[in-house]
Amino acid sequence: MKRTVLIALMLCLGLASTGLAKTWTAEELSSYSQAEIEAMGDKNIDQQIAYWEWRKAVADERIAALEPQVLPLRAARDALSARIAELTAEINSLRAQIQALLNAGVNHYILEGESLWKIASYHYYYGDGSQWPVIFERNRDTISDANLIYAGHSLWVPVPLLNAYTVIEGDFLGKIAGYAVVYGDRGMWPQLYEANASIISDPNLIYPGQVLNVNRSARTGGSR
After folding, report:
1. Which residue of 69, 176, 178, 214 pairs with 186 in a disulfide if CB–CB is 3.0 to 4.6 A?
2. Do residues 200 and 155 touch, judged by C-beta distance below 8 A?
3. Are 206 and 200 in contact (CB under 8 A)?
4. What is the rounded CA–CA span in Å between residue 78 and residue 74?
5. Is the CB of residue 180 less than 8 Å from the CB of residue 107?
6. Where does the chain hold its CATH 3.10.350.10 domain(s)?
7. Can you tell me the mean pLDDT for 40-53?
8. pLDDT, tens digit, 9 for 90 and up, residues 169-183
9. What's residue 219's pLDDT?
10. Residues 221, 106 contacting (CB under 8 angstroms)
11. Which fold has domain 106-213?
């Protein structure tokens, strides 16, 4: 720290009658420790004041010297804070999406002779029986043994509702509407027909490979 200029502090405490005041140089004041100054108590009040004024001047000088370095750091801090806020919002959004996916699913009514493997193999679910553990994990609260499921019960299959469906051999509108990933209700086939009137001239005639639009404004099965 530069101390080329002596700090002369003119104090009049106790010396007003003479018009004179004691002055201390920076070197003289710096020779005292803070403890020594505080130990003076009620003595040498003018010297104590001079000491603390000198300490303040030194601190102000140091602050002024550091200010050019501090300003860019403050700007960087503000930029980082803004970025952290953005990332936090993104993380919260992703968490919400993950939770929505975890909660998504369709309710499947178990029929006689079905197994988790068979259910997973249905083309409108996974089309792959080996995916049965996904269904099992989703339903651990109601299924303790993957080999024991019962007709008449229901379980949740963690798949999204479809917005489009590709017709396969043996399909008809009522059957498609009854799939849980479509409407879960065969009686809703008219809505499926209306949504695809541009490609279906006769509701009794649909063909494998046709891609049908699934109108999501219809009442559908939900999620839990």
Report:
1. 178
2. no
3. yes
4. 6
5. yes
6. 106-213
7. 90
8. 999 999 999 999 999
9. 54
10. yes
11. Membrane-bound Lytic Murein Transglycosylase D; Chain A (3.10.350)
